[in-house]
Amino acid sequence: MEDLGKTMQQLMSQQHLNDNYRQLMAKVYDDPLVRQFYEAHQAELADDVLTRSAAKLYEFVSEREKLAKGGATFATGYEPQLVVSNHLIDVAYVPTAETQEKQAEQRLRQRVKSIAMPKSIREATLKAFDQDSDRAEALMAALDFIDAYEASPKRRHQALYLSGSFGVGKTYLLAAVANQLAADGFSTTLVHFPSFAVEMKNAIAQNGVAEKLDALKKAKVLMIDDIGADAMSAWVRDDVLGVILEYRMQEELPTFFSSNFSMAQLENEHLRISTRGDDEPLKAQRLMQRIRFLAREVTMVGVNRRPQ
Ligand code: ADP
Ligand code: MG
What is the pTM of this model? Predict the structure, then answer.
């Protein structure tokens, strides 16, 4: 193997090179990463690579210098890397560690699709939830679900119906489960149901009902937050909620719920009575059968954790 230092000396002593260029390239050929790369790949490289790839080596060293100074580089978020290309040296731009981290974070975020949910759900973690023993049963049930689902995502898994008063952390727990599933590579859709119902009504005019409905019907894991918080029209109950749940039951897709009502209350005080005031116990019963098939009720107790 030819000695790099000697080759360089020869290169640099060539008469036709002017001083400026010589100084510039002396620094480039002296760069530890350039030397390392050259030594590691010499066998694959053309004999005259140092002259023919001089511009690329210069680009590599100067872009790295800019990066080290915190300046803007040729491609923001990317850093130069030396590669062998056709027996010569070329520069490839690869995402920096920071960029890779951001990209991973983005992919993670994309796994939690939320419809009309507060932004703060991003921060929810099971770890933080752990600190509270009041709601241990709900937490254990959530952890059991995650274990079972992740072990065999194609099988049927009964999810949870979290009931409990305002502010006990039902939404927080759902979000923490969704974030954990995302970290493990699984997608979840979280929907604030009362807001979704309004969106659906508006979608009628724009012919967008089927599409919006489909997104929830087919979500890998669906979490219906705050069911029962607003009075439901017969249309929302039967043609929106009913249709979503029927599909998910048939396809055995995991579906969570959270509500200020217990299951019994939801059936008797909420689903039975349509906004028109009709009492429809059979329709309520049918809907509850689907909910019970999909989820098991866990009551959460504890203090209201909302900032007062
Ligand atoms: P619910 O949906 O039952 O009405 P939330 O999930 O909205 O209650 O929780 C109420 C508030 O308390 C929210 O601001 C939430 O972020 C916070 N919170 C709930 N549980 C926890 C927890 N374990 N750790 C930290 N904050 C929590
Ligand atoms: Mg809530």
Answer: 0.79
